[in-house]
Amino acid sequence: MSEGLIALGIEDLGLNLGPENIADLDIFLHEMGRWNQVHNLTAIEGESESIKLHLIDSIAVLPVMRRFLEGPNPLIADLGSGGGLPAIPIAILQPEWRLTLIEAVRKKTAFLQHIRGKLKLHNITVLSERVEVVAVQQSGVFDAVISRAFTNLARFLELSLPLLKPNGLVFAMKSKRADEEMQDVNLSQWQLIADIPLHIPHTTVERRLLVLSPIKISPTLSE
Asked: Which positions does UniProt annotate for S-adenosyl-L-methionine binding (predicted)?
């Protein structure tokens, strides 16, 4: 299947992937397809072109994330990780980044733990818990939050805010409907830092990555 990934244009993303990277991505796709037949991890079925395209869709965010994330070992939360997109491909390609995968559905976290062990991804932590609970337990500890098809943008930002450090970033993977969703965002609380179209090779699908940061509220002095 490595040839399939290459044919789909994974090399066109400019990520300088090595054979080991490609092999691990292959294993991830194979295991997702195998588990999906029994556990219904995702609506995507089998080891189809769709799965591969969704994987490429997920790692297309990496050049942007590399540009914005400072420090050698950022701590990133993936909300509603599901079958591991985008967190698992990111963890494979960025072994120095630390990712916390938050997923409330136990059959999905079982798969995430399985793939963590199979690929020896020591840079990820899997939490079988609701995001709201993790936000209380790990308030203000993450450098960044990311999600793919988890919820609408305004709700995603609401859930992300308590998890983030003061200068933290939100990476929201969106489609052409991003403009509609931005209309519901409280711009007194959030700053849109970047709105970047993502190039997905050999597709006409529109993808955008929104990068947002919470606005610091200055304390009001009492008279």
From this structure: 80, 85, 131-132, 148
